[in-house]
Design brief:
mainly alpha; 3 strands; 172 residues; three-stranded parallel beta sheet
Length: 172
């Protein structure tokens, strides 16, 4: 959401610097990755949270929408049954929410992009395939290891990613 916002605002964004850690810059690819068999427990957990939020107290949904939400067994089904009709788009995750488009020159705020290539939920290939030289406002830091926001420091309880982000903000 931050990267998409920065891309939409461009130089008008009221920030001095920004950082995105393990951001799903392509939601369709991230969703496919999430639905791999190795991630089924987490996928079920996240889908359950999405259902709770969508149907919670005060939710402005119809009875038919509530039924469709509760029947969804995957994020794709949830999107097809609930999100897509609201956006009048067959693929809202790939067209309305993707941050990848924002990376193509629109971001003007110095932004640290931190992502591990072994992230089990956000494919590292999304970051490897990007032409980082095309936007000088972006500073990629793409270590081979770290998992999904699992940048644990040695001999410290403070995550390594927190230190990197703080250093970026101090010098950005």
């Amino acid at each position: 959401m931050l990267l998409k916002y920065l891309g939409e605002e461009g130089s008008a964004a009221p920030l001095v610097a920004a950082a995105a850690v393990c951001a799903p810059i392509d939601l369709a690819a991230s969703c496919r990755q999430m639905m791999r068999p190795r991630n089924r427990i987490y996928h079920r957990y996240i889908l359950g949270l999405m259902k709770l939020e969508a149907t919670g107290e005060g939710a402005a949904i119809s009875t038919a929408e509530r039924k469709a939400i509760m029947a969804a067994c995957t994020m794709w089904e949830y999107d097809d049954a609930f999100i897509a009709p609201r956006y009048a788009s067959p693929t809202p995750r790939t067209t309305t929410s993707a941050a990848a488009d924002a990376l193509h020159g629109a971001i003007r705020v110095p932004t640290l992009i931190l992502a591990a290539m072994d992230d089990p939920w956000i494919p590292g290939s999304l970051y490897r395939g990007y032409d980082w030289a095309s936007n000088r406002s972006l500073s990629p830091l793409l270590p081979e290891h770290g998992g999904h926001v699992g940048f644990h420091g040695r001999d410290s309880r403070q995550p390594w990613s927190d230190l990197v982000v703080a250093r970026f903000f101090d010098h950005g």
